[in-house]
Amino acid sequence: MKKSLQIGGAYVGIIVGAGFASGQEIILYFTSFGLKGVYGALLAAFGFSLVGMCIAQVSSRLRTTSHKDLIYQISGNFMGFLLDLLLSIFLFGVAVIMFAGAGATFQQMFALPVWLGSISMVVLTVATVMLNVKSIINIIALATPYLLTIVSIIAIYAIATMDLTFAEQAVIAQQAQISTNSWWLTALLYMSFNIGVSFSLLTVMCGAVRNDKVAGIGGIIGGILLGALILLIHLSLLAKMNIVIGLDIPMLALANEIHPIVGLLMTLSLLGMIYNTAVGMLYSFIVRFIEPSKSHFKRAAIVIGGLGFLASLVGFTTLVSKLYAVMGYVGLVLIIFIVGAWIRGIKKSDG
């Protein structure tokens, strides 16, 4: 059970980046639909659990060491090549975005130069990537209970002190809607995008787990925790929509409203989420090309980390962020292939 909890915690840690934890993504994809966002959160939780279980079990059966091992087996050579290419570009791109995000956060919090914040995150990320995969899972998983605690405190406070009814707040929340899609389609697209984000590290993590049942339970636990976080953040923001509408980091605003110390704890949580995502993306990107057991793995981590730092300074993030839209559809294709492979009961002996 301990291993399943670690996998579940790490699954959450990879997905809950700064956009999720800040509340910005939750407003766009869930809260803007008012109380229907609750249904969206439940649907996303079901999807995260089901697909997380499938990825975890298939990866465990195939003993995957990178996403490449899995993709080519479940989707064939041509589609495998396309998905592998897109995922690899995306992994590096998201790592770069996290480095840039750390720089911006350091500048906003401590009035430090952007480059200093970015390079600090790069150094910390590269140092973590040099550890073995079990240590990386443990580190990423540690942040999950901390974030759940902070978000629960904010949710209780927000609901206890709300000024308007949920129905009145829902009218205000509709101003944040970015598309005409229904609540259920928006929730599914959000889930599929994040499956694309977490897919590579999940395959690496669960490929190292010998018992596919343990791995599968980890995927289910992670999905349930993700659903709980979405629901808590959604209710927190909906309760205070008249205050947080239009803010860049709404959850931080609510945390500061409780007490500056809670605000500081939330800020540390945001930095922790940036770090988690950066580690997950950079490690998955490097192991796609170089096995961790190779002598030049650590040198490669330093070089690629350095390139990521340079890219974060030259506006590369603007270009890469356009991949986010593509990634939602890549995630949907991955979901179809992985669930199909799970239903077929694909195993190591298959290829």
UniProtKB/TrEMBL annotation:
Coiled coil: none annotated. Keywords: Membrane, Transmembrane, Transmembrane helix. InterPro entries: YkvI-like (IPR038728). The chain crosses the membrane at residues 7-31, 37-58, 78-100, 112-133, 140-162, 182-202, 214-238, 258-287, 299-317, 323-343. This is Membrane protein.
